[in-house]
Every structure is written in structure tokens, then in C-alpha cells.
Hints:
The chain is of the alpha+beta class. It contains seven helices and 15 strands. Helix content is 21%, strand content 26%. The strands form three sheets. Strands 7, 8, 9, 10, 11, 12, 13, 14 and 15 form a nine-stranded mixed sheet that branches. Helix 1 (7-13) packs across helix 2. The site of uracil (URA) has 8 residues, from helix 6.
Amino acid sequence: MSGAVRLDKLLANMGYGSRREIQALARLGAVTLDGKPLSKADERIKLSPDLPERMLVDGRPLDPLPGVALMMHKPVGVTCSHKEAGELVYGLLPSRWRMRDPALSTVGRLDKETSGLLLLTDDGDLLHRIISPKRHVAKRYVATLARPLRGDERAIFAAGDLMLEGEEKPLAPAALEPLSDTVARLTITEGRYHQVRRMFAAVGNHVEGLHRDRIGGLDLPADLEPGRYRIMGEADLAAIFA
Ligand code: URA
């Protein structure tokens, strides 16, 4: 994000409250820039990447500016949705972040029962670049299977002619790497509904556990615990498309 924006608009869009509430915060001296109180809510603030370090609200550094991207370690049992019943991935973020405009959205989805690397962003262009079928950004999964692999799955998935039930277009080639009799890595470049589970169903198996550990060249960090998230930097974003 670049340019300049009114303080009350900036903070209201970041979920800090209504414009009126921001005006009250500013009057109280609760918003500072470079250590000096910003008492006028209509003051125009120049947006710069270092603003979150320079601006404090109630003594705490400003949240990430619009144009943010997060990586999350999605736990099993949490849903990628804004409005379904039960625990939602957005509930793992600070409550204020759910009031942001533009809103944070997941980049594609993982099933409720799938764990692993999930990206979220409020940047529509970035989101579309990652999920666009033209870009072929690879997604890597580790699947734990109910039955031992037969041995022919790698060739079937690699062929590029596997048709999933109810679909009209065959799947693009996918790379299978057995890790044991009942555990395999699978790398796909599409994002069809329940794709990995349906691929194993198509070869007579059943996925009992599914975990995504890589998107493009970006690995789920080993020290990112389930339920935790991290703000992505330039290098993380570059790794997705590497
Ligand atoms: N494929 C699936 O079946 N489920 C996921 O969550 C992701 C890919």
C-alpha cells in the first residue's frame, strides 16, 4: 500500500473501531507517530512499510498495513470459512483483524480435517496469482492411507488422464512419492474440490490423514506450531513462485 490516508480511515479500516471511536482515541493522545501524539483524526498519514514500527495505538505497534500476507499452520478441526458453524481459521487471528477492510481471505482452502500450510491475504492480486491455474503453483501434501499402496498409483497420477468422478476434464499430471506402504507425498498443481482425497479414492484407497507441507517453494516452517501464523516477508512471497 502506498500514498497517504486519513488517520481515522486508516485505523477504522484496520479494525480499531468506528471513525468516531478513532477520533476519541486520537483526542486522548492514544495514537502516536515517532513518539508524538496525533491528536487530529483527519490528519493525512503517509503510508510506508515502516509505519507499523513508528505508529503506536494504545502503546502497541500498529497492526500490519493493508496488503498483508500470512502463513498459518492450520490445525485439524478448523474450517476455512467466514461463516460456517464451529471453529474457523479466522478465529485464530486477533479479533480486530476480523474487522479489516479489505478483509483477509484464505488463499484457496484446506478441508476441515486437513492440516498444514495455509496462506491468507487481503491482496486480491496476490491471491489470484497464487491460485491461478495458469501459474501451476505446486501444492505438496503428505497423505496417510487406510490401505497399503498397490504400486501402480504413481504411474496413474503421473499420466495426466485420471478422471475424477463427476468431472469432465482429466487431472493434470501429479507426482507421487511413497514414504512407506501407507504414507505418500503427493504434489499437485490444481486445486479441485477434495482433490487429494478423491485421487486416492479413484485408486481404491482412502485418505485417513492429510497435511500440506509446501506451496510452490515455500515450506511450512518447522517451528510454526499448529494454530499459529506469521506475517510473510518478501522472501516468503518470492519462494511461492520460485
Ligand atoms: N485435497 C483434499 O482432498 N483436501 C484438502 O484439504 C486439500 C487438497
